[in-house]
Every structure is written in structure tokens, then in C-alpha cells.
Automatic annotation (TrEMBL):
Originating species: Pyxidicoccus parkwayensis
GO molecular function: methyltransferase activity
CDD domains on file: AdoMet_MTases
PANTHER family: TRANS-ACONITATE 2-METHYLTRANSFERASE, TRANS-ACONITATE 2-METHYLTRANSFERASE-RELATED
Domain of life: Bacteria
Keywords: Methyltransferase, Transferase
Name used for this protein in its record: Methyltransferase domain-containing protein
GO biological process entries: methylation
Keyword Methyltransferase: yes
């Protein structure tokens, strides 16, 4: 389902939240670090570079993404694995567990956070960032096209991403014995190129939709969506402005 090349469009815009999340992770010398939903592994290598003495695990459910991550030989301290991020079990309790723009694909965040917290060592840190743009015009237009009779039957079972409120994340994690730092940031990206918002969405939100539809119907979906996005997000000389909100959580296990 995932295409590493398409996902790498707008690489700088996608990387920035990761570094802003990592700045709030105050851990000096972790022994075991994991990146769940590691994608192409570029940012997992950043973790291995920051904590050179740690064992670092990059985990993604996509064979294509992990194959791309392994294309450049990783250092001995870093291992990439194909696995479901909720079900993956680390070989030892984790001192740092990072997930950047991945958890929104998993249903039932209450159960998910309980699973992730259980993977932490004492004083371990869970740090994640999730997109929170699901009520934006771009995503509402996708929902409108999904509901059309031509596409709805094939897309009925395709999961839509979601994010809980910051208050919900704080309550869930506090109840699991973690102290929580949570915040939200809205980024105004000015995207270059033609149909830039569509290209952005094709790297992430539209992947499961296009996979379920297949090539022919997928092209029909994009042809229907494209003019709607052009109207909602007009292009200017400097590019296409696209407001995108993300939620961040850094939680430390205290018991």
C-alpha cells in the first residue's frame, strides 16, 4: 500500500514535527529505543545517531518501507523489522519509544496506549505525534468523494485516520501511571508544484483508499477529487498554502 517515493515528496515538511517532538525527549543514555511506524528509516537513523550506545529498533508494517529503510546498510546498533506497531514486542523494556505520524492509523487509542505503555522500562518515555487534520477541507472532500455511489462499496471497510483530543491523551496516559506533556501545532505549509495538496495526500491519507480501489477506479477517484482540492486550495505564485495541524505527546512512566 505504501510508496516510499511518493511519501518522500515534501520530505522537509514531514520531518520537522519529528525534530520538534524529539527536542522534548529528555533522556541521556537509553539502552533500548524504538521507532514505531518508521517508514523509510531516515528518522530512525537520527535516533541511532543521537543515542549511539543504544539498541535502536525501527518497526513498520509495510514491506516496501522497510525494504527502502534497509537499502542503505544500517549501523550495527540499528535493526529494521516488519511488524504491526501495536503487536510488536521489544526484546527488552524500552527507555524511549517514538512514533511519528503513525498511530492515527490504529483504532482504539485507549487500548493502543495501554499496549505501548506496557513496553516501557521504569522511567521510560513514550513520545508520539499524530496528524489532527481530519476536519480540514482536504479530508472532508476526500470523505465526500468516498461517499459517492461509484466508490463507496469498495471503500466501506477502509479505515479513516483519527486522533484523540489532547485532554483524552492526557487522561489515558495519566491513568496508566505516566506524566504527560501534550501540545498542538498548526503548520502553514506553502507547497510547491501542481496540485500540491493532492500530491501531499497521495503520500499518506489516500494510500489505503487508492489501494482498495485499484488502478482504474483509483484514477477516477483522483480525477474527481482534484478539481475540488484546486477550488479549496488555490495555487499562488509562491505555492499552495496548506494549513496542517498535529498533536504531540511526551509521557514518562513514573510507576
Amino acid at each position: 500500500m505504501w510508496d516510499p517515493t511518493q511519501y518522500s515528496h515534501f520530505r522537509d515538511e514531514r520531518k520537522r514535527p519529528f525534530f520538534e517532538l524529539l527536542m522534548r525527549v529528555d533522556v541521556d543514555a537509553p539502552r533500548h529505543v524504538a521507532d514505531l511506524g518508521c517508514g523509510t528509516g531516515d528518522l530512525t537513523r537520527v535516533l541511532a545517531g543521537r543515542w549511539k550506545d543504544a539498541r535502536v529498533y525501527g518497526v513498520d508494517s509495510s514491506d516496501a518501507m522497510v525494504e527502502e529503510a534497509r537499502r542503505r546498510p544500517p549501523p550495527e546498533s540499528l535493526r529494521f523489522e516488519v511488524a504491526d506497531l501495536a503487536g510488536w514486542q521489544p526484546p527488552a523494556p524500552l527507555d524511549v519509544l517514538v512514533s511519528n505520524a503513525a498511530l492515527h492509523w490504529v483504532p482504539d487509542h485507549g487500548a493502543l496506549l495501554k499496549q505501548l505503555a506496557a513496553k516501557l522500562a521504569p522511567d521510560g518515555v513514550l513520545a508520539f505525534q499524530v496528524p489532527a487534520n481530519f476536519e480540514a477541507p482536504s479530508h472532508r472532500l476526500i470523505d465526500d468523494v468516498r461517499a459517492l455511489p461509484r466508490f463507496a462499496p469498495k471503500l466501506e471497510s477502509v479505515r479513516r485516520g483519527h486522533a484523540e483530543t489532547l485532554a483524552t491523551y492526557e487522561a489515558l496516559l495519566s491513568g496508566l501511571g505516566l506524566t504527560v506533556d501534550a501540545w498542538e501545532t498548526a503548520y502553514l505549509h506553502v507547497l510547491p508544484g501542481e496540485d500540491a495538496v493532492l500530491q501531499w495526500l497521495m503520500g499518506t491519507t489516500l494510500r489505503p483508499v487508492l489501494s482498495a480501489l485499484g488502478p482504474e477506479e483509483g484514477r477516477g477517484f483522483l480525477d474527481t477529487l482534484k478539481p475540488l482540492l484546486r477550488q479549496a486550495y488555490p495555487k499562488h505564485e509562491r505555492g499552495t498554502p496548506y494549513l496542517f495541524t498535529r498533536r504531540f505527546v511526551v509521557a514518562r512512566r513514573v510507576r
